[in-house]
């Protein structure tokens, strides 16, 4: 919480008046001073006098009844409370700046549509899917966050999320986009031709994915075989990193086939073994059921559905739609 330290010092938040809440100017003075640990440098950045910056910070400390800096001969040092408040202040000022930029960029008629999606799915699938959307709907401002936290939907932070899972999320409407078929791929410099048997995997490094720690183990189990050390190998956060690790010759990656269509076509990646593993879950477009009839959500849902249908017709990926 922004005023957690103030609360600990005994300030009753319910009794705080408009004068008690810090001004934007005092927050900017504190943030700059904390960033450079110097009132003088902060004053230069903010085009203020050193005395004015110092007074703003002192007033902020007084209103919060919390010491934010230790003043010493060699400059400033943040107190533990100041260090925590510094991070919170940066978030507050960043949000104000973003809100102002959004308004200046899109005008008073703009409506923000907040989307959450996995980084790799965003780069490889959503961005191509959104081609032309902003031109056709200039009054919608897209705020795309690369993450997969469905809890943000519950808190109203996100309007639409593209998630991998079972399709069941509390109070959410989910539309299945496509299942996931994973294949083992690597650089053509790593192998001359596809393996003759699963035993050949024993001689190569298996690239791991943080979000699917047992993917390789399941891959071999589904083919009714066992291999030594299926969980060992360099582990990456995203499929994007795994794909590039495989392209660089670091080993064999087990990744969704639809994410690497271009690399397979160009020959940057080759299939090490022809088996395709269909995972238990699928990719979904999901949103709070309470927002079903809102214009921004229904517009995006229709746009994505049209893109999916077009993809089916062009036979780019095997996709089905179901609510």
TrEMBL record:
Keywords: DNA-binding, Transcription, Transcription regulation. It comes from the Bacteria. The keyword Transcription regulation applies. Gene3D superfamilies: Periplasmic binding protein-like II, Winged helix-like DNA-binding domain superfamily/Winged helix DNA-binding domain. InterPro entries: LysR-type_TF_proteobact-type, LysR_HTH_N, LysR_subst-bd, WH-like_DNA-bd_sf, WH_DNA-bd_sf. Residues 22-79 form the HTH lysR-type domain. The keyword DNA-binding applies. One of its GO terms (molecular function) is sequence-specific DNA binding. GO terms for biological process: DNA-templated transcription. Belongs to the LysR transcriptional regulatory family. PANTHER family: GLYCINE CLEAVAGE SYSTEM TRANSCRIPTIONAL ACTIVATOR, HTH-TYPE TRANSCRIPTIONAL REGULATOR. This is LysR substrate-binding domain-containing protein. It comes from Acinetobacter rudis.
């Amino acid at each position: 919480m922004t005023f957690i330290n103030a609360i600990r010092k005994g300030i009753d938040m319910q009794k705080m008046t408009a004068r008690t809440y810090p001004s934007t100017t005092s927050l900017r003075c504190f943030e700059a001073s904390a960033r450079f640990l110097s009132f003088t440098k902060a004053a230069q950045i903010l085009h203020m006098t050193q005395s004015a910056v110092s007074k703003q910070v002192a007033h902020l400390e007084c209103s919060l009844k919390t010491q934010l800096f230790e003043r010493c001969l060699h400059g400033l040092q943040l107190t533990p409370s100041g260090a925590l408040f510094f991070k919170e202040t940066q978030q507050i000022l960043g949000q104000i700046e973003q809100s102002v930029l959004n308004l200046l960029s899109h005008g008073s008629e703009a409506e923000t549509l907040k989307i959450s999606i996995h980084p790799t799915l965003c780069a490889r699938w959503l961005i191509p899917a959104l081609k032309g959307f902003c031109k056709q709907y200039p009054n919608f401002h897209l705020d795309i966050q690369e993450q997969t936290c469905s809890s943000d939907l519950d808190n109203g932070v996100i309007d639409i999320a593209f998630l991998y899972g079972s399709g069941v999320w509390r109070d959410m409407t989910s539309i299945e986009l496509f299942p996931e078929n994973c294949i083992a791929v690597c650089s053509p410099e790593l192998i001359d031709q596809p393996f003759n048997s699963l035993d050949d995997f024993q001689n190569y490094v298996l690239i791991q994915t943080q979000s699917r720690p047992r993917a390789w183990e399941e891959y071999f189990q589904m083919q009714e075989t066992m291999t030594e050390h299926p969980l060992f190998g360099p582990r990456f956060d995203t499929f994007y990193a795994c794909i590039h690790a495989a392209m660089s010759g670091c080993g064999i990656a087990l990744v969704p086939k639809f994410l690497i269509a271009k690399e397979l076509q160009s020959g940057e990646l080759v299939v090490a073994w022809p088996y395709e593993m269909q995972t238990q879950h699928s990719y979904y477009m999901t949103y709070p059921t309470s927002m079903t009839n809102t214009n921004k959500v229904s517009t995006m849902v229709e746009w994505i559905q049209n893109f999916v249908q077009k993809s089916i017709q062009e036979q780019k990926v095997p996709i089905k739609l179901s609510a």
